[in-house]
Amino acid sequence: SPLLPVVGQDLNAPLIHGGQVRYANLDYAASAPALEDVAAHLNEVLPYYASVHRGAGFASQVSTSVYENARKIVANFVGARPDDTVIFTRHTTDSLNLLAGCVQSILTQKGFTEGRSNVHGEVLYLDIEHHANLLPWQALPHRSVVAADSIAATLARVETQLRAGNVLLLAVTGASNVTGEVLPVNELAALAHRYGARIVVDAAQLAPHRRIDLSASGIDYLAFSGHKLYAPFGAGVLVGRSDWLDTGKPHLAGGGAVTEVRLESTRWSDGPARHEAGSPNVLGAATLAKAAATLAALDAQDWHSHEQQLREYLVAGFAAIEGVNVHSLFSDSADYPECGSIGVVNFSITGYDAGLVAAYLSAEHGVGVRDGKFCAHPLLNRLGLPSGSLRASFGVGSRLEDAQRLIEGVSALLRDGLGWDYVVDAGRWVP
Ligand code: PMP
């Protein structure tokens, strides 16, 4: 049974092959279904939906309080420090681009000093990053590190680069969106700080599955998206140390981000307002915060073991089928208590195109998985999967039966073949 109820999972729908199929959503890592209590909260807030911060009307006051309360809930969810800023963005990609803009400003702004010296340096990132945590840094002075086949060796490679000097910011993912493996972000934060660098963690995949504590870990910046956290699309967050954020170029220029505007010059606000010009996504922030509060109330042990059981079941099922290959990065995750894997299994089937398998699983078995290169081209190429692989991913709304259906679908493919012809239409396989 699921750990938490999610919207759109009709457990009573009949499971009929070739007719109405009970859909097994194994694509949570792309976008997770909304929690039922998130949907309920959306309905609660919807009647008071109004412009925030500037209106004196009742609905506007309620909306402002919902929006600012959401900020506090997010700060609690990630254990933010008192001087951290919580900025609502559109999604993780937006959050990381916002931070990159700030880094660019402080690198080019004369006189921005931290301690004794002017800030300078490069951004260091791993080759396993999602493009969202790679492309924004490519526009700045940067270096990259190829992850090794163990966490220990990867940490050593990162340390070598940090020791070489001139690293301003280490940008790493909290969990790989390709393999689901969790990175030792606390150790990476300590390492970055030892060499005078800051760290940003792309928590798009980590936040929906693990507790994160900025105060305890020292992580400087954190980015994640509502739509992977069991809330709807359209809202994300960037949380982190306010000095860079208050100095950086405003993410968007416009109303709400200023304290004073003259025809030729502008004084920008500090705090979140600096980067939140325009009418903000109140419903997005409120639902993201509701999801965060619900996850925060979970018993961590139940949370992790639910996903762990499903993952182990799926991996064991695949291991018993000849021709299925499960892909992962690190051989020594077990040596790192904070690591392991979130609810993701990456796999391929010998002799079958990944897109074809995904289309077959959807059409014949009602199973939704993702195929392709997962916006992580450098990693897929390095893993020898230049035409992509498949990813099954799950979370609090998933059932063992979903994983079972996937195993049965893959077995049926290898036993019976496709059943009918699939052709490529508009770049996708279709029956
Ligand atoms: N980072 C990681 C690790 C991701 O998995 C994703 C989404 N696939 C992103 C960043 C980008 O998230 P969004 O599309 O919500 O901006």
TrEMBL record:
Keywords assigned: Pyridoxal phosphate
What catalytic activity is recorded? (sulfur carrier)-H + L-cysteine = (sulfur carrier)-SH + L-alanine
Q: Which organism is it from?
A: Arthrobacter glacialis
Per its UniProt record, what InterPro entries does this chain match? Answer: Aminotrans_V_dom, Aminotrans_V_PyrdxlP_BS, PyrdxlP-dep_Trfase, PyrdxlP-dep_Trfase_major, PyrdxlP-dep_Trfase_small
Q: What is the designated name of this protein?
A: Cysteine desulfurase
Query: What cofactor does this chain's UniProt record say it requires?
Result: pyridoxal 5'-phosphate
Question: Which GO MF terms does the UniProt record name?
Answer: cysteine desulfurase activity
Instruction: Read off the PANTHER family from this record.
Output: CYSTEINE DESULFURASE (PTHR43586), CYSTEINE DESULFURASE 1, CHLOROPLASTIC (PTHR43586:SF8)
Extract the PROSITE patterns matched here.
Answer: AA_TRANSFER_CLASS_5
The record's SUPFAM superfamilies line, in alphabetical order, gives: PLP-dependent transferases
Report domain Aminotransferase class V positions. Answer: 25-406
Which family does this protein fall into? Belongs to the class-V pyridoxal-phosphate-dependent aminotransferase family. Csd subfamily.
Q: Which residues form the signal peptide?
A: none
